[in-house]
Amino acid sequence: MARRDKLQGSLDLLILRTLRGEPQHGYGITSQIQAWSDGELEVEEGSLYPALHRLERDELLTAEWRETEAGRRAKYYKLTRKGRKHLEAELKRWGRLSSAIALFLERSDA
Under a CB-based contact definition with an 8 Å cutoff, are residues 61 and 77 in contact? Predict the structure, then answer.
């Protein structure tokens, strides 16, 4: 059975995957997650920023202050090398977990 923390780690996975491209600020991250999920996933600020700070503390992200397109200062987050390796491992783990859940659901309908 999956441990509780594995399922809770899905926000971290979403954040890391969003940052695989270019650095983004918090609003950009939440907007991208919402867009890529066709509006099904919404990340609240109260969940996003603690996750970003934890990922930064764990050296999976770095952050720097920059000016946004709207002329405001915002903290932009970027994946580190360690973060990229962690993301790839988590993508594999998520694939195995989602396959196992799909298999369970298929068999439980029989």
Answer: yes
Look at residues 28, 6, 31 and name the one whose alpha carbon lies nearest to residue 100.
6
Please report, in tens digits, the pLDDT of each residue of the chain (110 residues total).
Answer: 344 344 457 999 999 999 999 999 999 999 999 999 999 999 998 999 999 999 999 999 999 999 988 899 999 999 999 999 999 999 999 999 999 999 999 998 76
Distance CA 41, CA 17 (A): 14
pTM above 0.70?
yes
How far CA 64 is from CA of 25, 60, 67, 108, in Å, comes to 9, 14, 10, 48
Q: How many domains does the chain contain in total?
A: 1
CATH code, 58: 1.10.10.10
What is the rounded distance in angstroms from the CA atom of residue 86 to the CA atom of residue 34? Answer: 23
**Domain span holding position 56:** 4-103
Residue 32 lies in a domain: yes
By residue count, the chain amounts to 110
